[in-house]
Design goal:
elongated
Length: about 90
């Protein structure tokens, strides 16, 4: 009977980007869980290139780029936002 691969890597990164609506600097916390290895340099570069965007669009972009299960959290104007992108 085949065994299920249960190994996982977790990566966490904090980054900032401007809100396109009001220019406010938003601090995001990204967590990626992946069965594959993701190079830290790739995560750092990808998040550094994000200068502005809507929270949900940033989540879509990073999910497309890195896959895995991702959670991005931020607070904008007192509203806590959490997006979840699941692979598969």
């Amino acid at each position: 009977m085949p065994t299920e691969n249960r190994s996982s890597n977790t990566y966490r990164q904090t980054f900032a980007a401007n809100c396109p609506s009001d220019g406010e600097v938003i601090v995001y916390t990204l967590e990626i869980r992946s069965q594959s290895m993701i190079r830290v340099e790739h995560i750092r570069t990808a998040t550094a290139l994000i200068k502005q965007g809507w929270h949900e669009q940033i989540a879509d972009q990073l999910a497309e780029q890195f896959g895995g299960d991702q959670v991005i959290e931020a607070v904008h104007d007192g509203v806590e936002i959490e997006t979840v992108r699941l692979s598969g």
